[in-house]
From TrEMBL, chains A, B:
Cofactor dependence: pyridoxal 5'-phosphate
Domain Tryptophan synthase beta chain-like PALP residues, every copy: 80-382
GO process annotations (BP): isoleucine biosynthetic process; L-serine catabolic process; L-threonine catabolic process
UniProt-listed PANTHER family: L-THREONINE DEHYDRATASE CATABOLIC TDCB (PTHR48078:SF6), THREONINE DEHYDRATASE, MITOCHONDRIAL-RELATED (PTHR48078)
EC number in record: 4.2.3.1
InterPro entries: Ser/Thr_Dehydratase, Ser/Thr_deHydtase_PyrdxlP-BS, TrpB-like_PALP, TrpB-like_PALP_sf
Group of enzyme by EC: lyase
An annotated Gene Ontology molecular function: L-serine ammonia-lyase activity
Protein name: Threonine synthase
Cited Pfam families: PALP
Record gene name: thrC_2
Length: 409, 409
């Protein structure tokens, strides 16, 4: 951690449209593909597998930069870091439904308190490498906070637009970390429009989810890190809170890259996309056997991070879910709130609502039989529970009265 | 991370009064010494040095349990863990005052978002080992949150008492994580009285700061981990936000244990106790050459975590500061607020007010000449900045009007 990051071989060969598979040059700025779809980064995995070993990785600091050869940044001087440590994989035996072990992967430990740090540290590092100095983004909160921190750290100007019902803590955090932030009296797509229309007059680079190719590569490290922590093995099932789905897409990409170089063998994890019943476009498309999801009208849920009515990477999410023999499922707000409460009261672990949705889904699918009690499962807690409003606690003692110690049982 | 913790040799020989040096048996429940002073845990360091090497430690997961031989827990089954990962040591070149490197050690990444997790995971593990099932604590917030989480995780009942001006987020977090919490219309010492007087009728164990011996051992891992991260070297100066001072005492104990077994050579870091001008009992005692500090009347500061008017370990703090050729210093609320703002605007790093006090002190002491611009320094950010109120950010855009893109420069 002391030194600047050492130089490393890199293996990016080109970028490829996730839909049409046409190629795009590496080391140039790109948004979406010609077909308007996300671009995926491609590597020379044969050369990569020759260049680095699991044993070599184990000697490096436990951060996401351990996986440097699997990542797109060419020059170490462009790495923009705020300490992306491995997040802990915490066994939660009291939440287990059977013999299969259950863990929470606590992504709230990353910079700015959420998994958004993984995507944004990579996207900002690549933007720096490619000469970007101004970036803009529409956000419901956590992604904007991560962009603010990494943008400032990189010496860039960042312009961030939030729907006006974004929680106060997120807006303040964005401003505190050196970004320029505006509340917009509209929805996330209105914010997206401002960003898109500003590209020419302002000259900023559009950092909207999946509209640049590198956030997926950052999120990919969730899969690399998980396999590494488990001794280059994987759990049977992964429950992932799914809004834009960058993380699910990224993890599935990681597992497949690891399989291709022979570091993972056998069955890959079943990927379960968890949504809220008030906003479940992926669940609907999954159940209807469709490749793309329709816009979800009147989206609402307590888990604001998965309130994403339309995702540009919908087909990539659905593809990962199907290829992995997983599924998409939805839980309602009551289940989410009860799951959050149960995890904290039983294990002392305070999840965020989106994380709690994964525990609610695990319970629901044990019940439904789609998950067996013998399957091991990892639940992704995507942000610290401290960013969310907790229920009041109003017991009081008056020191002017004798204390009734029989209360404390 | 996957397995339960492996068994390990342990080396505790006895406990010793920090003041009178009389001995107390290991593996029994203890509060303060007969002299009413904190007990320090003593190890057979010769045997420890034979049993474990730096190379062996490097193969273990990057958590505080890596240092198992330096810690008091005898049986692995008693370890109560929520994922105590190594906290990152983040270089902050834009905050540097000269050629000496400056790092922030970001303790906000620990469970419950503060360094209190280190002390409480150790104290709760030892309480479990010694058969305790009910614990109680007075707290201004973060320590109570950590006890709530670890107590629940251990299957204990915890009873927590806060002054009624404790921030709402802390009280709610304590309750959410399964503890019983009460607001008390008094100060922290009134809360402490309730805990002390409840010992007999309720039978709970008193977890007040330094009133049990193991929180220091948990905080000691800050020193072990820092030296490990720096390749078994140390910085020239450490700035530490000092309330009860458990961490400063613990780190100094760690450095001395490492020196005794030969893992650290040469000069140990100068320990700087940072307080607020509105509550600076250690600074006063340091400047007056005293061994103990007087109670500070009318304590006040924005950095509530260091608003501790009287510390039972005062003499241990002052001893560490003097032995290390460090000093105690105070900064005012304006300096703290300005330092917090500067760090986040320059480096994208949101400190907590207590952490920001260390940066304010670093700047002040560069100016005063007590720290040289060539000295390397570590600033301890003791909690996530997200637990504290941030300044409002009120820019808005009306989508019913044309957007003025000339705003975004």
């Amino acid at each position: 951690m002391l030194d600047s990051f050492p130089e490393s071989q890199t293996f990016v060969t080109h970028l490829e449209c996730g839909m049409e598979h046409d190629h795009y040059a590496a080391d140039q700025l790109h948004g979406l593909s010609k077909a308007g779809k996300p671009l995926l980064v491609k590597y020379d995995l044969n050369a990569l597998a020759q260049a680095v070993s699991k044993e070599e990785l184990a000697t490096r600091p436990a951060t996401l930069w351990r996986y440097r050869e699997f990542l797109p940044v060419r020059k170490s001087e462009n790495i923009v870091s705020l300490g992306e440590i491995h997040t802990p994989l915490i066994p939660v035996p009291r939440l287990q439904g059977g013999n299969g072990s259950v863990w929470i992967k606590d992504e709230g430990r990353l910079p700015t308190g959420s998994f958004k740090a993984r995507g944004l540290c990579m996207a900002v590092s690549m933007a720096k490498e490619l000469g970007v100095t101004k970036v803009a983004m529409p956000t419901n909160g956590n992604a904007g906070a991560a962009l603010a921190a990494y943008g400032t750290r990189a010496g860039m100007k960042s312009f961030i637009f939030c729907p006006d019902d974004t929680p106060e803590i997120n807006v303040r955090e964005i401003a505190a970390q050196g970004a320029h932030v505006w509340r917009v009296n509209g929805l996330i797509n209105d914010c997206g429009k401002i960003v898109a229309q500003g590209k020419e007059p302002v000259g900023w680079f559009d950092f909207s989810t999946l509209k640049e190719p590198y956030r997926i590569e950052g999120k990919k490290t969730m899969g690399l890190e998980l396999a590494d922590q488990m001794g280059w093995q994987v759990p049977d099932v992964i429950f992932y809170p799914t809004g834009g789905g960058t993380g699910l897409i990224g993890m599935w990409k990681a597992f497949n890259e690891l399989k291709e170089i022979g570091w993972l063998k056998g069955k890959l994890p079943r990927m379960v996309a968890v949504q809220a019943t008030g906003c479940a476009p992926m669940v609907k498309a999954y159940e209807e056997g469709k490749e793309h999801a329709e816009l979800w009208e009147d989206a609402h849920t307590v888990a604001a991070g998965i309130r994403v009515p339309v995702a540009v990477g919908d087909f990539l999410i659905l593809r990962a879910v199907r290829e992995s023999e997983g599924f998409a499922t939805a839980v309602n707000d009551e289940q989410i709130t009860a799951a959050l409460d149960e995890a904290s009261q039983k294990e002392g672990f305070l999840m965020c609502p989106e994380g709690a949705a994964t525990y609610a889904a695990y319970k629901q699918e044990l019940e439904s039989g789609r998950v067996s009690p013998d399957e091991s499962a990892v639940l992704f807690n995507c942000a610290t529970g401290l960013k969310y409003e907790l229920p009041p606690a109003d017991q009081a003692i008056d020191i002017n009265q004798p204390v009734d110690y029989s209360l404390f049982v």
